[in-house]
Specification:
255 residues; alpha/beta; TIM Barrel; 6-stranded parallel beta sheet; two-stranded antiparallel sheet; 8 strands
């Protein structure tokens, strides 16, 4: 617990590095997502945070090399037995809801088959990203294949992929039949995407994000990453503002 700012901090052993920070007000809303390739280690990590979060999620869809090389993320998609081991271990030992996220396999039939196996493991919900591992972010998300998963399961399905405006949230729900929606890049670029009144200018969102990052003493690397993603989408890192963010070393530099 950090008494100065009233947060619950998970600190890397032997260091002062905060690897996860939350607060009591968020405990019934924050879902802790982890990458893992081992059921025992997954449980050990989950037991550290489970009392301070609303659910524990296992990422089985990340295609990034750092994740794949560690046997995590999308590397799990072709290992259904390991998936079952991880999820059932978590379910058996946690009172906190367990969910997971996958992406599409090489055919809709195979995706549905995997989704059914995951449902049988006892998860509370399943998020499905509408792209395959080989797809690029610019490739359209296949909402119809998410709909196939929704039709096959009885648990809530969370649709993910190509949600960039508030209107897209309702559109993907209607198209897929999904219970809810996960937003990634759209929220990273402009968090006001969730407002039914429409987005506020990204510059305003950026300023508010920096204020909150300073208020909660957010990790400077994480803050820089988010700001750089916003600037790359709406502007250019080679302009003075972008260069200043790139060179910054502290939250004060970003103010």
């Amino acid at each position: 617990m950090c008494e100065v700012i009233g947060t619950t901090d998970i600190v890397e052993k032997g260091t002062e590095n905060v690897v996860f920070r939350t607060c009591h007000e968020e405990s019934d809303r924050v879902v802790f997502q982890m990458g893992t390739s081992d059921a025992v280690r997954a449980l050990a990590a989950a037991q550290i945070v489970c009392k301070d979060v609303a659910a524990v999620d296992v990422n089985m869809g990340c295609p990034k090399s750092f994740s794949i090389s560690g046997g995590m993320g999308a590397a799990l998609l072709n290992k259904p037995e390991l998936i079952h081991d991880i999820l059932t271990t978590l379910k058996r030992n946690l009172d906190t809801p367990v969910t997971c996220k996958i992406r599409l396999l090489n055919s809709s039939q195979n995706t549905v088959e995997l989704a059914r196996r995951i449902e049988k493991a006892g998860v509370s919900a399943l998020a499905v990203h509408g792209r395959r591992v080989a797809d690029r972010p610019r490739d359209p998300a296949k909402w119809s294949e998410i709909a196939d998963v929704v039709a096959a399961l009885s648990i809530p399905v969370i649709a993910n992929g190509d949600v960039f405006d508030y209107e897209d949230i309702e559109h993907i729900k209607l198209t897929t039949g999904a219970t809810s929606v996960m937003v990634a890049r759209g929220a990273l670029w402009n968090a006001s995407i969730f407002s039914p009144k429409g987005k506020v200018p990204w510059e305003e969102v950026k300023r508010e994000y920096v204020k909150k990052s300073i208020l909660w003493d957010n990790d400077v690397k994480s803050t820089k990453h988010t700001l750089k993603e916003m600037i790359m989408h709406f502007s250019c890192l080679e302009l003075p503002e972008g260069k200043a963010v790139t060179k910054s070393e502290t939250l004060a530099d970003l103010a």
